[in-house]
């Protein structure tokens, strides 16, 4: 995907999200990670040229975050019955977000360690990527907790637990599953794109 197209889609979704969100405080807290991802992608793309796969995955993750910010995760339309067999009587859009929180960072981390040639062993590379994603998910839960304590009235909307006592643990579990699935499904395709990017840089 051309970076200009990426920017147009991101800005378009961002502007839509900023118009009459459910709550502006919650919106700001939820879309901030998307903005950080976008800035990070721009920074690294200018210097290292990331793979097309990674840029698309980051855009999809940003869109998930921005939509969640507009509605709050507990009120996103169309997800009232999503995964209702596992977590009934709640809107499970946040579970999609936490799955993406493992799926997308797995490819971000994988691309970095491969292109920086951090590991000689594929097994250690995979172990590190999965551990990184699980650690990142746990740290994000801590950030949610700290921000919720500071935000006071907006805490419930921001956390989105919807009364589920195991919400934090299930969020981290889904991130773990997402990271494993990303490695299983995308590794071969990702390797080809990394090879192509490296060849383009040498030309």
Can you walk me through this structure?
α1 runs antiparallel to α2, α4 packs parallel to α7 and α5 crosses α7. 33% of the residues are buried. The two termini are 20 Å apart. The chain has 7 helices and no strands. The radius of gyration is 18 Å and the shape is globular. The longest helix is centred in the C-terminal third of the chain and has 36 residues. The mean pLDDT is 87. It has one domain. It is an all-alpha fold and 203 residues long.
The parts where pLDDT drops under 50 for at least 5 residues are: none
Which word captures the global form? globular
Order of secondary-structure elements: HHHHHHH
Number of extended strands:
0
Largest sheet: none
Beta-strand content estimate: under 5%
| Alpha-beta classification | mainly alpha
End-to-end Cα distance = 20 Å
Kindly provide the radius of gyration, computed on alpha-carbon positions and rounded to a whole number of angstroms. 18 Å
Report the average pLDDT across residues: 87
Whole-number count of domains: 1
- Count every helix, treating DSSP H or I runs of 4 or more residues as helices: 7
Percent helix, as a range, is: over 70%
């Amino acid at each position: 995907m051309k970076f200009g197209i990426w920017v147009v889609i991101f800005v378009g979704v961002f502007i839509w999200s900023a118009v009459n969100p459910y709550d502006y405080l919650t919106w700001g807290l939820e879309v901030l990670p998307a903005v950080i991802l976008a800035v990070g992608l721009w920074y690294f793309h200018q210097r290292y040229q990331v793979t097309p796969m990674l840029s698309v995955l980051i855009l999809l993750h940003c869109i998930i975050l921005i939509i969640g910010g507009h509605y709050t995760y507990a009120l996103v339309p169309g997800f009232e019955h999503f995964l209702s067999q596992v977590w009934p009587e709640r809107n499970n859009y946040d579970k999609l977000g936490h799955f993406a929180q493992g799926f997308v960072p797995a490819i971000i981390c994988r691309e970095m360690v491969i292109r920086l040639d951090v590991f000689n062993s594929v097994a250690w590379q995979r172990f590190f990527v999965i551990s990184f994603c699980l650690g990142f998910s746990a740290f994000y839960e801590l950030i949610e907790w700290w921000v919720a304590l500071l935000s006071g009235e907006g805490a419930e909307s921001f956390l989105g637990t919807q009364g589920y006592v195991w919400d934090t643990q299930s969020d981290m579990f889904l991130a773990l599953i997402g990271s494993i699935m990303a490695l299983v499904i995308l590794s071969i395709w990702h390797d080809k794109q990394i090879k192509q990017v490296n060849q383009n840089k040498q030309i």
